[in-house]
């Protein structure tokens, strides 16, 4: 699937579109990293993503949900990128970078100073996307253990005035 109108916007996680994407992401983690024990898979359910400290974003092409990501606020300065996923049919089109840009814009609008994330060691394409977006390898953060099953990344956000556009839908039409 390519082309079409791409929308990246904050939406409720308590909808079928997101629940299906979460199930696909969980299956992908299980199949790509079968050796990782369940206690080191730090998943968030749709209900957890609906908490006030988390903003969930859906990527839609012509109205069809094709990806998701979330920003979880740990405190006044630290936000975490969670549940990044794009369906295989839409990968390689720059959507991961656009979704990360949208999450980062939201973090800036909230005055966060740092974004961090945790990902499986086997997700090489995702890790390259994070590195291209300016994330650098770091150690565990928040309450994550140093398990040997994950890679941790961190990005310092430049201090800017709050961006009122960050709270509006990020809507990009493609020819």
TrEMBL record:
UniProt keyword Acyltransferase, yes or no: yes
Lineage top rank: taxon: Bacteria
Pfam families per UniProt: Acetyltransf_1
UniProt cross-references to InterPro entries, sorted A to Z: Acyl_CoA_acyltransferase (IPR016181), Bact_Acetyltransf (IPR050832), GNAT_dom (IPR000182)
A single GO molecular function term of this UniProt record: acyltransferase activity, transferring groups other than amino-acyl groups
Residue ranges of domain N-acetyltransferase in the record: 6-158
EC number(s) given by UniProt: 2.3.1.-
Key words, A-Z: Acyltransferase, Transferase
Name of this chain's protein: Putative acetyltransferase
Species: Aureimonas phyllosphaerae
Biological classification of the source: Bacteria, Pseudomonadati, Pseudomonadota, Alphaproteobacteria, Hyphomicrobiales
């Amino acid at each position: 699937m390519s082309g079409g109108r791409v929308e990246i916007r904050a939406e409720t996680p308590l909808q079928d579109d997101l629940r299906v994407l979460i199930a696909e992401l969980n299956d992908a983690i299980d199949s790509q990293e079968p050796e990782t024990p369940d206690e080191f898979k730090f998943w968030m359910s749709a209900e957890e993503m609906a908490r006030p400290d988390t903003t969930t974003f859906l990527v839609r092409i012509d109205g069809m949900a094709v990806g998701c990501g979330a920003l979880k606020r740990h405190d006044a300065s630290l936000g975490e990128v969670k549940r990044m996923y794009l369906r295989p049919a839409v990968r390689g089109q720059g959507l991961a970078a656009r979704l990360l840009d949208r999450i980062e814009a939201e973090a800036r609008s909230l005055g966060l100073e740092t974004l961090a994330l945790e990902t499986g060691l086997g997700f090489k394409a995702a890790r390259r996307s994070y590195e291209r977006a300016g994330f650098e390898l770091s150690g565990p953060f928040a309450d994550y253990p140093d398990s040997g099953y994950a890679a941790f990344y961190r990005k310092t956000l430049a201090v800017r005035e709050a961006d009122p556009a960050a709270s509006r839908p990020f809507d990009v039409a493609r020819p």
